[in-house]
Please model this.
Amino acid sequence: MHTEGRKITTAGAQLHVQTSGDPNGRTMLFLHGGGGTLADFEPLMEDFSDFHCVHLDTRGHGKSTSGGLGQSYAQLADDVEALIRAMNLHRPALIGHSDGGVAALEVAARGHVALGGIVTIGAHRYVPNRKVRDKLCAMTPSDWRSQYSEGVSLYERLNPEPDMDGLFRQLVAMWCDETPGAYPGDRTTRIQCPALILGGEHDHLVSVDETIDLARSIPDAHLGIIPYSTHAMHDEQPERVSPFICDFMLFLEDEPMERIAG
Model:
């Protein structure tokens, strides 16, 4: 799915961005999870040809450089805001999986840029529970290479400054960061734009209860639990996930302007 695309320079990094679909359609900005690339959303894309789709390799991932900075949800949100401004995107809907979903929550909670809405797929509101956190914190680069060998190979082929071990250690530090403010936490109650919160019935990282709690924390948020699915539900069951997102995008067309963050 990677093409030549274009580069957005922000905070020392060169962020790789591509577009697809109808440039005159409603804008959707896709944010992949930690260790992934913009290609992770490819199983969904055939259903979004009528939309202006913007695809980002987040800092240090895919074809984007790190700029010498570590990974944090605050920095991810800064990068998303910089991209929206640089490309002059009009009220994009953020579609974020896992870390990308957390970044979408952070951007929406800040309210620094105008959003049409957000969709999160398997996103955390708070630092993961102790059982999950202990497993994440115990993972090593070798474990990651063993479990996600195809993703690692893709990263090492694409990235202009590949350092998989360094990137993974930064991701683990971000996932396990218990510092106040590291995750959106209670700030999700400030989100004013429309939101769709999706979770997998058998997600080993984000429980159904955590997904419901996130949805309830956002005023008037919509909730979808994908049966039989785990964390990468958009890859496993695109035929179930895509209709939720398409319906949400149609809902945004009828949403009163005062409900759209500005």
